Amino acid sequence: MLNFLNQVMPNVVENWSGDTGMVTGIWQTLYMTFWTTLIGGLIGLALGVALVIYDEQGIMANKAVYSILDKFVNVFRSIPFIILLSVVFPITQFIVGTTIGPKGALVPLIIGTAPFYARQVQNTLVQIDPGVIESAEALGYGPWTIITKVYLREGLPDLIRTSVLTIISIIGLTAMAGAVGAGGLGYIAVSKGYQRYQNDITIVATLLILVIVFIIQGLGDLWAKKIDHR
Amino acid sequence: MSDQPIIELKNIDVIFKEPEREVRAVDDVQLSINKGDIFGIVGYSGAGKSTLVRVINLLQRPTNQAAVVKVNGADLLKLNAKELRTKRRKIGMIFQHFNLMNALTIADNVDFALKKSGLSKVERQQRVAELLELVGLADKSHDYPSQLSGGQKQRVGIARALANRPDILISDEATSALDPKTTASILGLLADLNRKLGLTIVLITHEMDAVKQICNRVAVMDAGKVIEEGDLLQVFSQPRAELTKDFIDTTTHIQSSLAVVEQQAIVQNLQPGEVLVQLGYVGAATDQPLITTLYKQFNVSANILFGNLEILQDTPVGQLLVVLSGTPKETQQALRFMQENDVQVTVLKSGDKGGN
Ligand SMILES: Nc1ncnc2c1ncn2[C@@H]1O[C@H](COP(=O)(O)OP(=O)(O)OP(=O)(O)O)[C@@H](O)[C@H]1O
Ligand SMILES: [Mg+2]
Fold it and tell me: B71 in ligand 1 pocket by Cβ < 6 Å?
């Protein structure tokens, strides 16, 4: 078995473990994806919900607040990620104490993700029937209950679907961050595979990324389908 | 149906400011609804019905300072947000499109109304079961809204609206998306709840039929104003506004039948002493053998071309299109006799005045 693997992908086998090996790369990619999803997701969710409730038609309609949030999200969404990576270096240094490695990539990843996800959340939640929101108001519920028990509950199946899209795009971003020194499968595919003409590494790293994407997509779809009763 | 107002709206204005224009959705409305009433509000689309009833629980705030919204004695405009929410729980509301949560089962949709009720989990389950029993959906509790018919969904909406034992139920076009048979069963359920629980119901609709079936009072709205208001029987038998007459005609078809009736040969060729009249009568007057009396006493024969008889609030209400014929003098006597006996007489066409 090992013999066979040695023959078809000698460089992969050689670089399997170790500080800059494939296994480390997988973990680094998962690490960056996980924390970005968690922190960027929560910030994005909060921003997205805020955009919905402060909207002109929202339950806490407030033009000023909405327009500030709206512009904020637009500005940060417009900065190309590759530029964001270098621009936020000082902030990164300040917050996490380093600008290299997976940890150093978290700040730009989160800044790159949160506004994107906020829009996804907004677009999902505004589709919820205003009549359902109105009926909750008529039942005497305030904003907090309406957000948690109506918006997030009714919107959950679609939120899961957009979250899957967001996570997949986060994986894409981690690969880009990897290429400029954050580690992970993206770094391995580019620096160890492509740049050193070790094609087997490039292919295997790519396949591993695809596997992660498919698993997330599959689980997300299953879950969304299970709880969707429309 | 006591004389004790449970809802009092005074000087209500609601003006929506659009970039281009102002919409006066509600225009200086005064409305008083008594405890136990089933109060109908009719009007064409855009008349301001929904906006007006949303003022009752302040989902829509009046836009003028002078407005007063009193529900069960409390001046809602003077309450803070939290107090207002507590009051809203005592005003149930049902909607045209049901507005149920797709993500929740029927039982959970009803339970959703009880989140702030202070009941324990077990008590809530009991209450939900009780409510689903009341609306006849006990066996559907684990289904999702998408599995129900429109009528069933509205029953869930009713159960949810009643969860906190409200004194008032507002129904905004609750039957407009339903077929006639289902509409009748939902209206029947509302009338039942009114009788059993003493629930005051505000029923918004553009179907006069619904009003006729269960309301005891009715208001007609047009362009933000209440143009006519009163007891169902009175409004029905003696409508004043043209719009009210139009609405009534949608269920009696008297006006629309008139066109057909006028085409008939007998009406085309009215002779002297012959008149086409519309007769309206309410209650007691109906019981008298009117047509027979006309013939026996005045020698005037009556040819009924169209008739509509309704029972409103257990009182018969009739509308007839009739050609009376006798000598001119006898016919005049007959008309006077009917007026003296509380029959509403409208002469539509006469053969005397050189009629063609
Ligand atoms: N939020 C709003 N902003 C601006 N205009 C509004 C708003 N809500 C209602 N209107 C306007 O106010 C008027 C009355 O609307 P409303 O919904 O109360 O009518 P309605 O009698 O309930 O009609 P329908 O039978 O179609 O439900 C309409 O001209 C409508 O366009
Ligand atoms: Mg309406």
Answer: no
